[in-house]
Amino acid sequence: MLRGKVGGGRLKNRRAFAGREPCGYPGMRPTALLVLATLLGAGEPLQRAGIAVSVTSEADAGGPVLVARFTPMTQDPPLHLYAIDLPAGGGGLATRLELEPGSAVRARGPLTADQEAQLLDGLRVYPEGAVVVLRLPISAPAGRDPLSVGVLVSYMACSRSSCLMPVQRARLAVEVPARKRLIQYS
To answer: Which of 47, 40, 97, 54 is nearest to 73 (CA)?
Structure first.
């Protein structure tokens, strides 16, 4: 069994936590980024295990896009996150944005990241200290009101020497505009 300090422990071995239960750093102070994200109508922000996460909804030519911004806390040495395509069970934890099961919206394209992954100790990671933005194109059902969509985020932040506790499938909510109903006249 794995043991560590809850709410402040560091992991020495980043490979040891693949598939373990989520844990984090309760009580961290919100940053200006989180306050700004809340004021701009973003979903409820999350700040745990060295990373501030906010999820918003934008639009592209095909419809709504969920946008998750993972911002590492400033520290020395800097933190990195694992790539979205990191295989399960091989060490680390992939940075992910998923729709909550049973959601009224569906993915209409693949999850993408704005950062290029690089190899570190044989694992694909994003650059140290980099803000990572994930995008998930979705299709929303027709309606008038915005939908509150539940999303799940997972990530694990590490420095070159140690890792923080992984966050697995933490729930956030974001408002997504409903697709406009088409009215047909005969």
So the answer is: 47
Q: Is the dihedral angle over the CA atoms 147, 150, 154, 159 positive or is it negative? A: positive
Q: What is the pLDDT of residues 107-150, one digit of tens each?
A: 999 999 999 999 998 999 999 999 999 999 999 888 767 889 99
pLDDT score, position 183: 53
pLDDT tens digits for range 176-185: 987 665 555 6
C-alpha to C-alpha distance for 46 and 26, rounded to whole angstroms: 10
Task: Give the span between the Cα atoms of 152 and 63, in whole angstroms.
Answer: 20
Identity of residue 158: C
The whole model's pTM is what? 0.74
Residue by residue, DSSP assigns the chain as: -----TTT-EES-GGGGTTPPP---TTPPPPHHHHHHHHTTPPPPEEETTEEEEEEEEEETTEEEEEEEEEEPP-SSPPEEB-TTPPTTSSS-B-EEEEPTT-SSEE-S--EESS--EEETTEEEPPTT--EEEEEEEE--B-SSPEEEEEEEEE-EE-SS-EEPPEEEEEEEEEEPPBPPPP---
